[in-house]
Every structure is written in structure tokens, then in C-alpha cells.
tRNA (guanine-N(1)-)-methyltransferase
Amino acid sequence: MRIDVLSLFPDMFTPLKQSILGKAIDKGALDFHVTDFRDYTENKHNNVDDYPFGGGAGMLLMAQPIFDAMAAVDAQAGDKGHVVLLDPAGRKFDHHVAEELAQKEHLTFIAGHYEGYDERIRELVDDEISLGDYVLTGGELGAMVIIDATARFLPDVLGNQVSAEEDSFQDNLLEFPQYTRPADFRGRKVPEVLMSGNHAKIAEWRLKESLRRTWLRRPDLLNQRELSQQERDLLDDIKHEAEFE
């Protein structure tokens, strides 16, 4: 996958070149580019923003630098990709959106600043995404979150692809508790079933604990999942156990 970002602050994306994503970039699983769209301004002061027509607070990003920076991406990559605008009015980002974006061959993010965008910039856009019901000072942090979450679904990015498939929110269940050595840490013991070697019992325990954690912390997710008979029975057990705690 190729990922392009249009930003006024390219250095903010340096952390993405570290750790797991950095390794993915090094081995060619991810092709990552950041374009400073200030480089494409046509005015002598290199301004990228201006006052809104009709008055109002704040400044708006001008259309010209974004259009020309996007044309440069298109020329270099051969296409502009699936263009994502980071905007509080966009659809809310979640696990399923990350999976959807991971199917694209080329993503381009527009990370804005200031009060907002000249509306004509939206002509370039295929998708508008928000991290949630709050406002950040710029789109860079939002773009980094989306890139990180999306890249985990790409082949050869994680050392173990099963990790992405079993993570929290996959199939609308939170992840089950996990443990590593020692088996007894200062009196806090690992559940015996996990050391039993009985894979069927371990799988059932993990499913039950995923259901328990989801029911306690994010019950709304269960409404989005079609529960099997086994899951309904386990959930009944969990609710019954909770009555006696």
C-alpha cells in the first residue's frame, strides 16, 4: 500500500517511521510519503489560509495549494488514491473503517489546520473521517491514528497476522485477558485452564471472558453481533454469576 499525507507539518509524522510501521516501510510493505502543501503556494508570502467570505471567526485553508499538491501526488504515484479528509463532520472512525481502508491500494490524507477548509477542496475528496466528537488543532494526529490502525491489517506489517484478527473490536467483541510468565506473580495466579493444554477448554474460556469484558465495558457492541447459541448460553452464565458477586 502507498500512503500519502498532505500536511503543513511533515515532521509530525516522524514517529510513524519507528517501531512496527517503520519496519514495514523498510521492507517495502508500506510506501509512505508526506507532502508539505505550503511548497505549492503561489503567493509571495507562502500563505495557505485566508479569511472566509461573508465574515466569521478563524481562517480557512485555501483551495489552490491543496489542489496543486494533490496534482503532484497524482503525477508521482500515477493516481491520487482514495482521498481522505480529516474533518469533525466526517463519519466516525472505528475498527471496521480501518479494515475497509486496508483494502485500498493507495490512500491520501488531507490533514488541515485553522478553522476549516475552502469548500471546493471537497471536490478532491472520496471520504471524510472523524476520530470522534471533539476537535483537534489539526488533522495530523487523526491521520496518524488512522494510518496506524489501518496498516495493522496489511499483509507482512505485523509479525503475526493472527494478532490483528483476534484484537479487540474484531467481530464486536473486546479481547479476552491474557497472561505470560510467571504463572504465579506474588500470589496472583494465571487461570488454571490456560495451562491445561486443553485447547477446546481454552477457546471456550477465552470466548466467555471476551463476552464478559464486552458486556461489562461495551454492551453496545453486543447489539451489533449476532450471537451464537453457545455465546448466548455463556452470556447467561456471566449474568447469573454477576448476580452473586
Notes: The beta strands are 2-7, 31-36, 49-50, 60-61, 82-92, 106-110, 116-117, 127-130, 184-185, 188-189.
